[in-house]
Design a protein that fits this description.
Layout: E1 2-7, H1 13-20, E2 25-30, E3 35-37, E4 42-44, H2 47-55, E5 59-60, H3 68-77, E6 81-85, H4 93-96, E7 103-107, E8 115-116, H5 119-125, E9 130-137, E10 147-154, H6 161-185, E11 200-201, H7 217-226, E12 233-237, E13 240-250, E14 266-270, E15 273-277, E16 282-290, E17 296-297, H8 298-304
Parallel strand pairs: 1-2, 1-6, 2-5, 6-7, 8-11
Antiparallel strand pairs: 3-4, 7-9, 9-10, 12-13, 13-16, 14-15, 15-16, 16-17
Helix pairs in contact: 1-2, 1-6, 5-6, 5-7
């Protein structure tokens, strides 16, 4: 097949590499325009563009995928299929209908569950036991197209958003070859999604990582894992941001075993962590990073920054 590949972040790269190493021809790669990034605001290419240059594939970077000039450019390439993985723009009907076999999207959930943004992080945050990858035929809706194939993955007890991201990106690279083979052979069964079973998840912003200590310990432990490595879960100690990278949810002690404590108060300073009161249960923070410092295990952190029982972890003044 002659393929146009559309993608932008590093999640998309394993699929591109899988297609290039297959019998198919990747005629062009379409990715988002270069953008300023970091403190110096230097212009940076997307991970997909970097991979395409390394692989010797022509790169297209339209400001808007719906511009008639771009649609015409794709038409002239005469693709058999377009493969889309986290491209970052809504594709118009005219573009979706160009390829002979249509446009196939790789989505990081078991559709129709978790349509929309950040499905991988939400699977961890919500405490799911399994998730996976779906290939679907794209339509004009948001992740509403017919399901083609799925591959499932069990979540580890200490799965993070980052570790699941890496696993699912590799799975997508393998699944797309199966989907394209069956699509070409005409053996794929297209399964319409049941709108009644669909769930949408919102985009995660940096502010979402600010810890609300009135939530229960189990919910907070999942949140910390789901937001690792980005945007990370954080709180404030003596006016400085304190990131919590790893934690354990502990059972609630009986009231007579400890005095009443406010949510976010440090109950105990242990050898391997800080025991912190939550809305229900105790959270033990085992990997921390104070603003301007390196990430450390709890023992190393406490040697450089003494924490005492009774100290209060707080939220920022602007929520």
């Amino acid at each position: 097949m002659k393929i146009i590949f559309m993608g932008t972040p590093d999640f998309s790269v394993p699929t591109l590499e899988s297609l290039v190493s297959s019998r198919h021809q990747v005629a062009a790669v379409v990715t988002q325009p270069d953008k300023p990034k970091g403190r110096g605001k230097g212009i940076q290419m997307s991970p997909v563009k970097e991979a395409a240059i390394r692989l010797g594939i022509p790169v297209l970077q339209p400001l808007r995928a719906r511009d008639p000039s771009f649609v015409e450019e794709i038409r002239k390439l005469e693709p058999d299929v377009m493969v889309v993985v986290a491209f970052g723009q809504i594709l118009p009907k005219g573009l979706l209908e160009l390829p002979r076999y249509g446009c196939v999207n790789i989505h990081g959930s078991l559709l129709p569950k978790y349509r929309g943004a950040a499905p991988i992080q939400w699977a961890v945050i919500n405490g799911d036991k399994e998730t996976g990858i779906t290939t679907m035929m794209m339509d004009e809706g948001m992740d509403t197209g017919d399901i083609l194939e799925k591959a499932t993955a069990a979540l580890d007890e200490k799965e993070t958003g980052g570790s699941l991201f890496c696993r699912l990106s590799q799975m997508g690279g393998a699944l797309i070859l199966s989907t394209l083979e069956k699509l070409e052979q005409g053996t794929l069964q297209r399964i319409p999604q049941d709108p009644g079973q669909a769930t949408y998840v919102k985009k995660i912003s940096k502010s979402f990582g600010e810890i609300d200590w009135t939530l229960d310990a189990i919910t907070l432990e999942r949140l910390i894992r789901g937001l690792n490595p980005w945007p990370s879960a954080y709180t404030y100690l003596n006016g400085k941001m304190l990131k919590i990278w790893e934690a354990d949810a502990l059972g609630e002690k009986r009231p007579e075993e400890r005095p009443a404590a406010a949510c976010g108060q440090v109950l105990e300073v242990l050898e391997d962590g800080l025991a912190i009161q939550t809305g229900k249960g105790v959270l033990k923070a085992t990997s921390l990073q104070l603003e301007g410092k390196k990430r450390l295990d709890a023992a190393s952190f406490l040697r450089g920054f003494p924490v005492r029982p009774g100290m209060q972890l707080e939220r920022s003044q602007v929520i």
